[in-house]
User: What shape does this take?
Amino acid sequence: MKYRIIILGMTVLAVAACADTPKKRKLCPQVAIVRALEKVDDYGHEEMEEKNLVATALMDSVEGECKYNDGRDEDVMYDWGLFQFGGYSYEESVKGQKKEGEAQPPGVDVNFSLKMLAKKGPRLGGDQFSVPYFVSVLDPENKILEKNLMTVSFKFSSSNGIAEQSDPLHVFIPMPKEAKSTEYRVIVGFQLTEEQIKASREKEDADMKKRISGAR
Assistant: This one.
């Protein structure tokens, strides 16, 4: 399946925090939810009508920190805090870059929790719903250095049609000591099919026409 990463129009969720001293002031790489891929409406293979909706999922926010290892200064950690709009690990990518007993290469560890919400639809037969999403690392030229697919699972209670799930995520970004970490990005979004992307655009167009017609 062809897939296009949308860089423009994404919601940036993380910025740097200040260090205790100016000497140790460093910036975290950007962590962002791709706006066009922050929501998914699952209708299965049925027509896009309310009665056929299985469930809706939304990426809500992130909270986390970054930690540097540049081989010169001691590691420095920052807390991003919680941003509006916002258990998988990238440990294998780290293992592949160093031998056992060797020091970790220069770079930055990015640890964050991705909060997601889901709403049960009328066509969901049980109390569980799963949807795939991705985490990608982009270099300063917006080339994908790493992309991993995960699946988030929601469980609805019998009395509530809303479910919440927070996935802890870890990304290690190797980079030269002289590189600027702010030029690297970590982006997340739901892994939509071509049909879902097309249906979402058609729904947005239909909603826009209704709003324009109602405003006349």
Q: What stands out?
A: Residues 39 and 58 are 4 Å apart (CA to CA).
